[in-house]
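Proteins fold reproducibly. Look at a concrete instance:
___
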Amino acid sequence: MSSSKKLNFASILVYLYLAISVFLTCYTFYRAEIVHSGNQFSYYYKYYLIFIFGNFFWFIILFLNGKKKMQIIIIISSLCFVLYFYETVRFFKPSILKSDFFKTLNKENVIKSKHGEKSKYETIQDLKINKGLDVVPSIFPSVFLKKNLVDKELDIFPLAGVSNKITVFCREGEKFAIYKSDRYGFNNPDKEWDQKRINFFLVGDSFAQGSCVQPGEDMASQIRSLTNLPAISLGMAGNGPLIELATLKEYIVKKNPQIVLWLYFERNDLDDLKIEKSNLILLNYLKNNFSQNLISKQFMIDKKLLEQIKYSERILLNPDYLKKKHTEKFLSFKKIIRLQIVRDKMALDRGLDFGIDPLFKTIMLNAKDFISKFDGQLYFIYLPDKERYTNQNLNEDVYLKKIQVLKLINDINIPIIDIHKKFFTKQNDPLQYFAHRIYGHYSPKGYKEISKIILKEIYNININQ
């Protein structure tokens, strides 16, 4: 009787695994052939192979004796447990590392706790109350692409932060990056704008803005230090190609730029464009003579930004909002079920290829033509994602459409400086150039060495400072 029960129980579990495998095969077919109309076979074929193999595997297991069935079920179940345990720990890692228990185990967090780990909001309040400073949090143009706005009908689209303010930016390590914004709200010494001609303009996202290093350590500052020439960063975190084009057209006028560095970050720039192109104001920048004349509207811009900051603070401090965010965290359970992190680490979750939005080429051509009117030269700086070096994608030119992007830029005759090829592939330890080896942005040393590479490629000289 006992043997029969074990046999039945084992068979039930095998049927259950077989049913799951069949379901996943059907779901793969639905996603590949119906949702994507059969156009993404290069992505889905590996899932077809895995699940079809699973179907045959569990079908064969049905014919084994009860003891062998149980042995295989125990092995497979143990493997599933390990995968889901890893997925869960990685998913909740940020919360786990903030717990009191793990602070005692994590050396970096012990140092933080000794200094008193403060949130961005607490840091701002401390600077305001205890030091009497006029401080604001960083605010980015991409905020105005979201629904959570105090001004639902935008009559103007800001492209920088609040001007002439101590700005608390971001933290990757012990200290927040804090800088005094310039007259237009960017991360530069304000006096740079007094120069009649700016030799270098940098446009891009958080890498161009200087996440998350101290003043003087960002890329524009490194270029100023290495060349003794004027350099201005127009970068803001979260920017994509369309916002970057808009920023160039608003702020380089009358500054006769000699060199414009377009910092392209491979991880998310094309994804950012998907959101940006829904904004009608930004799309207008594809027209030759469109401008919001933002340089003459700084008072209006600052007012709008400060209103948005206050609105966001009220929402942030609302108990209902905090409760909602906590609930949303647990609603992300479906990401764990799908083993999203595990699939990414195993390179299974890559391969969906929708091509490159034709608008990207239009934007780059538009930027090139615009800069040429000032007798300037546009350079396309390809910045690699840290995951290339943690996930052993060092030589993967197909990773994040790299080869497609560079071909597009090469075809329209924009000079390319490939930081992955020119710098990181030549390093024995690429991670040393990322913040604390764990964050996605560069360390001060990383920004400096990359700046040297850029200058070497432009001027064909070695800089040893």
